[in-house]
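In these records, each integer encodes one residue's backbone shape. Here is one protein:

___
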Amino acid sequence: MTIEESDVRLAERLAREAGEILLALQNQGDLSGKELGQAGDARANELLMRELKIARPEDAILCEEEKDSDARLSASRVWIVDPLDGTREYSEGRSDWAVHVALSIGGIATVGAVALPALDLTLTSAGPPKLKALNTPLKMLVSRTRPAAEAVAVAKILGADLLPMGSAGAKAMAVVRGEADVYLHTGGQYEWDNCAPVAVAEAAGLYCARIDGSPMRYNAPDGYLPDLVICHPELEDAVKAAIAAL
């Protein structure tokens, strides 16, 4: 087994186990709303941090729930983690939430696992599903609470139907799974919101980039990544042209 294969297996196991913790907490029924979301974040984060530090003690970590450190900037291998992506959806008992575990090597999203626990599904960069044919009409994912004006405008140009959905991971995996064709986000994200989804999406053969066409890069001093587009490769040129027309 190569180091990367070992990393993928670790990412998959941790994303899945964190998802199991989140489902168990949700099913207990003792908490609801913000309290459920906060408890879920904390418990999933505790597992991920403990296991990563045991399994990869020499690697750096960037996590939404942990205090950041400049020490990671000198590291080549950085685990980028979101214990619960889509806290609102999780708290509401919806299915469109996720767990993200990714490994950035030299600033590139190299390894990724995205668990969709409510769907009993974990997708990884090692074995993403084969790309499906485009939907007719095209389907474009947007935030269920804050649809970005740019995404709505691009959807109109492409003649695509809007598909509201929760977490970034759920939306990206919907494109990977062929449920949708384009995910365009301009509302602001952080590296932990999209590193694992991008690793899986790129491994599946999808086009992934910033909306200006520049590549996705990770482990930056400021972990803020304001925009991205993930789409079926057959739509790359059309999506770029639509964005340029805005």
